[in-house]
Write a structure and sequence with these properties.
Distance between the termini: 35 Å
Protein name: Chromatin remodeling protein HARP/SMARCAL1, DEAD-box superfamily
Structural class: alpha/beta
Largest sheet: 6 strands, mixed
Strand order of the largest sheet: 2-3-1-4-5-6
CATH architecture of the largest domain: 3-Layer(aba) Sandwich
Organism: Pseudoloma neurophilia
CATH class of the largest domain: Alpha Beta
Radius of gyration: 17 Å
Number of domains: 2
CATH superfamily of the largest domain: P-loop containing nucleotide triphosphate hydrolases
Keywords: Hydrolase
Order of helices and strands: HHEHEHEEHEHE
CATH topology of the largest domain: Rossmann fold
Shape: globular
GO molecular function: hydrolase activity
Number of helices: 6
InterPro entries: Helicase_C-like, P-loop_NTPase, SNF2/RAD54-like_C
Strand content: 15-25%
Length: about 230
């Protein structure tokens, strides 16, 4: 996808954002998050609110880890498109080392996916796999990376574990770091404590070691937290 197409998508996303803002529901203690429509609206709003900070975080991660590979999960189009724009800018920056990436979401044809995965696994230039958590969290192996970033939270820890398992698979020789980017003043702050409790239950079943904590300074509107899984 070229920059113009991505920019057009960003413009469309901004129109959606304006529509969301007119219907904004403040997240507070008495917000009914058990209502699916409310929950979905709050998740979409969180994506729009924190996409800029997420882009900056990923850009800095790539700068600080110039040879490492990275798997990034997102859900909403505004987040996927925003991150891809940052990756395109990195690709086109002549000051950087040769760089490329793959993106797999619901629009990616099945017959192309394995070839994209193979390039990520074998080509050192292909450093980032940008994936939809609902479309690419199962059935592929990406253990050439040992870092996963969730740019959006998912309320079901089973989906998170499935996504992590794209990297934490047979053949992975390193500890896997899973980084969650929490949006400040968004639904993330309400979902995160509940998600931690569920992950702690899974830890007792030997599914990952929860080394939770701040893994860096707050990047604008997001705060990174990490958990680890050993090989």
């Amino acid at each position: 996808i070229n920059n113009q197409k991505i920019n057009n998508k960003i413009v469309n996303d901004q129109k959606i954002n304006n529509q969301i803002q007119t219907k904004k529901l403040e997240v507070h203690s008495n917000t009914d998050l058990s209502d699916k429509n409310t929950l979905m609206l709050e998740y979409k709003l969180a994506a729009h609110q924190k996409v800029g900070s997420v882009k900056n975080y990923i850009k800095k991660w790539l700068e600080h880890n110039p040879t490492e590979k990275l798997v990034v999960f997102a859900h909403h189009r505004v987040m996927l498109n925003g991150i891809e724009l940052t990756l395109q800018e990195t690709t086109n920056n002549s000051d950087n080392l040769p760089f490329s990436y793959i993106r797999i979401d619901g629009s990616t044809p099945q017959h192309r996916r394995q070839g994209m995965v193979y390039s990520f696994q074998t080509d050192p230039i292909v450093r980032v796999a940008l994936l939809s958590i609902t479309s690419a969290s199962t059935g592929i192996t990406l253990h050439s990376s040992n870092t996963v970033i969730f740019t959006e939270l998912w309320w079901n820890p089973g989906n998170i574990l499935q996504a992590e398992d794209r990297v934490h698979r047979i053949g992975q020789k390193n500890m896997v770091s899973i980084i969650f980017l929490l949006g400040r003043n968004t639904i993330d702050e309400h979902v995160w404590p509940k998600l931690i409790q569920k992950l702690k239950v899974l830890e007792k079943m030997d599914v990952g070691e929860n080394v939770f904590g701040d893994v860096g300074a707050r990047e604008g509107g997001v705060l990174p937290f990490k958990r680890s899984r050993t090989s």
